[in-house]
Amino acid sequence: MRMKARFILDAALFVIYLIAMNTDGTGIPVHEWLSVGVAIVVIMHLLTEWEWTISVLSRFFRRLFSLSRLHFVVDTLLFVVFTLVMLSGFLVSQSILPLFGFSVPFGPTWRIIHAVSGDFSLVVLGVHVGLHWRWIVSAVKRVTAQTPAPDSAM
What pTM value is reported for the model? Predict the structure, then answer.
Protein backbone atom coordinates (compact mmCIF):
# COMPACT_ATOMS: atom_id res chain seq x y z
CA MET A 1 0.00 0.00 0.00
CA ARG A 2 1.30 3.44 -0.84
CA MET A 3 2.53 5.66 1.97
CA LYS A 4 -0.22 8.25 1.44
CA ALA A 5 -2.99 5.64 1.70
CA ARG A 6 -1.35 4.02 4.75
CA PHE A 7 -0.95 7.41 6.40
CA ILE A 8 -4.60 8.37 5.78
CA LEU A 9 -5.77 5.00 7.12
CA ASP A 10 -3.57 5.28 10.23
CA ALA A 11 -4.48 8.94 10.85
CA ALA A 12 -8.20 8.14 10.52
CA LEU A 13 -7.79 5.26 12.95
CA PHE A 14 -5.99 7.47 15.45
CA VAL A 15 -8.50 10.33 15.28
CA ILE A 16 -11.59 8.09 15.35
CA TYR A 17 -10.18 6.18 18.33
CA LEU A 18 -9.50 9.37 20.28
CA ILE A 19 -13.01 10.66 19.54
CA ALA A 20 -14.55 7.31 20.52
CA MET A 21 -12.64 7.35 23.82
CA ASN A 22 -14.42 10.57 24.81
CA THR A 23 -17.75 9.09 25.90
CA ASP A 24 -18.70 12.30 27.71
CA GLY A 25 -18.47 14.18 24.41
CA THR A 26 -20.00 11.57 22.14
CA GLY A 27 -22.46 9.70 24.33
CA ILE A 28 -22.66 5.90 24.57
CA PRO A 29 -24.41 5.18 21.23
CA VAL A 30 -21.89 7.21 19.19
CA HIS A 31 -19.04 5.76 21.27
CA GLU A 32 -20.17 2.22 20.45
CA TRP A 33 -20.68 2.82 16.72
CA LEU A 34 -17.36 4.67 16.39
CA SER A 35 -15.73 1.74 18.17
CA VAL A 36 -17.15 -0.65 15.59
CA GLY A 37 -15.59 1.62 12.96
CA VAL A 38 -12.29 1.53 14.84
CA ALA A 39 -12.41 -2.28 14.89
CA ILE A 40 -12.91 -2.35 11.11
CA VAL A 41 -10.06 0.09 10.50
CA VAL A 42 -7.78 -1.85 12.91
CA ILE A 43 -8.39 -4.96 10.81
CA MET A 44 -7.55 -2.98 7.65
CA HIS A 45 -4.40 -1.65 9.34
CA LEU A 46 -3.33 -5.15 10.38
CA LEU A 47 -3.85 -6.43 6.84
CA THR A 48 -1.72 -3.62 5.36
CA GLU A 49 1.09 -4.51 7.78
CA TRP A 50 0.73 -8.29 7.48
CA GLU A 51 3.92 -8.86 5.44
CA TRP A 52 5.97 -6.84 7.93
CA THR A 53 4.43 -8.77 10.83
CA ILE A 54 5.27 -12.15 9.31
CA SER A 55 8.77 -10.97 8.38
CA VAL A 56 9.57 -9.75 11.89
CA LEU A 57 7.98 -12.80 13.50
CA SER A 58 10.13 -15.12 11.40
CA ARG A 59 13.30 -13.29 12.57
CA PHE A 60 12.12 -12.53 16.11
CA PHE A 61 14.51 -14.81 18.02
CA ARG A 62 17.54 -14.53 15.72
CA ARG A 63 18.91 -11.22 16.98
CA LEU A 64 19.17 -10.19 20.62
CA PHE A 65 18.54 -6.45 20.21
CA SER A 66 16.39 -5.11 17.47
CA LEU A 67 14.17 -2.08 17.09
CA SER A 68 11.88 -4.19 14.90
CA ARG A 69 11.46 -6.59 17.82
CA LEU A 70 10.44 -3.72 20.11
CA HIS A 71 7.95 -2.50 17.49
CA PHE A 72 6.56 -6.02 17.20
CA VAL A 73 6.17 -6.42 20.98
CA VAL A 74 4.45 -3.04 21.35
CA ASP A 75 2.23 -3.70 18.31
CA THR A 76 1.28 -7.12 19.69
CA LEU A 77 0.49 -5.61 23.08
CA LEU A 78 -1.60 -2.95 21.34
CA PHE A 79 -3.49 -5.65 19.44
CA VAL A 80 -4.18 -7.59 22.65
CA VAL A 81 -5.34 -4.46 24.49
CA PHE A 82 -7.56 -3.36 21.55
CA THR A 83 -9.04 -6.85 21.40
CA LEU A 84 -9.78 -6.74 25.14
CA VAL A 85 -11.32 -3.27 24.83
CA MET A 86 -13.52 -4.36 21.91
CA LEU A 87 -14.56 -7.67 23.50
CA SER A 88 -15.41 -6.09 26.85
CA GLY A 89 -17.12 -3.23 25.02
CA PHE A 90 -19.44 -5.63 23.23
CA LEU A 91 -20.15 -7.42 26.50
CA VAL A 92 -21.26 -4.18 28.17
CA SER A 93 -22.96 -2.71 25.09
CA GLN A 94 -25.91 -0.49 25.85
CA SER A 95 -26.81 0.45 22.26
CA ILE A 96 -25.59 -1.94 19.57
CA LEU A 97 -26.49 -5.33 21.05
CA PRO A 98 -29.91 -4.21 22.30
CA LEU A 99 -30.61 -2.75 18.84
CA PHE A 100 -30.28 -6.26 17.44
CA GLY A 101 -32.33 -7.80 20.25
CA PHE A 102 -29.44 -9.11 22.36
CA SER A 103 -28.91 -8.45 25.99
CA VAL A 104 -25.75 -9.58 27.68
CA PRO A 105 -26.24 -9.71 31.46
CA PHE A 106 -22.64 -9.34 32.56
CA GLY A 107 -21.86 -7.69 35.85
CA PRO A 108 -19.66 -4.72 36.73
CA THR A 109 -16.45 -6.73 36.28
CA TRP A 110 -16.60 -6.35 32.48
CA ARG A 111 -17.25 -2.61 32.82
CA ILE A 112 -14.12 -2.31 34.96
CA ILE A 113 -12.12 -4.39 32.49
CA HIS A 114 -13.43 -2.21 29.65
CA ALA A 115 -12.49 1.03 31.45
CA VAL A 116 -9.03 -0.15 32.55
CA SER A 117 -8.12 -1.70 29.19
CA GLY A 118 -9.40 1.44 27.43
CA ASP A 119 -7.17 3.65 29.56
CA PHE A 120 -4.21 1.29 29.12
CA SER A 121 -4.78 1.27 25.35
CA LEU A 122 -4.13 5.03 25.29
CA VAL A 123 -0.77 4.51 27.00
CA VAL A 124 0.24 1.71 24.61
CA LEU A 125 -1.04 3.74 21.65
CA GLY A 126 1.16 6.64 22.80
CA VAL A 127 4.21 4.33 22.88
CA HIS A 128 3.23 2.97 19.44
CA VAL A 129 2.99 6.49 17.98
CA GLY A 130 6.29 7.44 19.63
CA LEU A 131 8.07 4.43 18.13
CA HIS A 132 6.68 5.26 14.68
CA TRP A 133 7.25 9.02 14.97
CA ARG A 134 9.95 9.20 12.26
CA TRP A 135 7.65 7.41 9.81
CA ILE A 136 4.76 9.74 10.77
CA VAL A 137 6.86 12.86 10.18
CA SER A 138 8.12 11.45 6.86
CA ALA A 139 4.58 10.53 5.79
CA VAL A 140 3.23 13.98 6.69
CA LYS A 141 6.01 15.62 4.66
CA ARG A 142 5.33 13.37 1.66
CA VAL A 143 1.55 13.70 1.84
CA THR A 144 1.59 17.48 2.22
CA ALA A 145 4.40 18.15 -0.26
CA GLN A 146 3.35 20.28 -3.17
CA THR A 147 4.37 18.73 -6.45
CA PRO A 148 5.27 21.38 -8.99
CA ALA A 149 2.86 21.68 -11.88
CA PRO A 150 4.34 20.58 -15.19
CA ASP A 151 5.38 23.38 -17.52
CA SER A 152 2.71 23.95 -20.09
CA ALA A 153 3.81 24.50 -23.63
CA MET A 154 2.17 27.42 -25.34
Answer: 0.73
On whether residue 88 sits in a domain, the answer given is yes
Output the DSSP codes for 6-67: HHHHHHHHHHHHHHHH-HHHH-HHHHHHHHHHHHHHHHHHHHHTHHHHHHHHHHTTT-SS-H
Residue 148 lies in a domain: no
Per residue in 12-21, pLDDT (tens digit) is 888 888 898 8
Burial 134-149 (b: 16+ CB within 10 A, else e): eeeeebeeeeeeeeee
Question: 10: buried, middle or exposed (CB in 10 Å: 19+, 13-18, 0-12)?
Answer: buried
The total of structural domains in the chain comes to 1
Q: d(Cα 32, Cα 116) in Å, to the nearest integer?
A: 17
pLDDT of residue 113: 93
Kindly state the DSSP code that residue 94 receives in the 8-state scheme: S
Which positions ≥6 away from 106 have C-beta within 8 Å?
91, 92
CA proximity to 93, closest of 81, 105, 84? 105
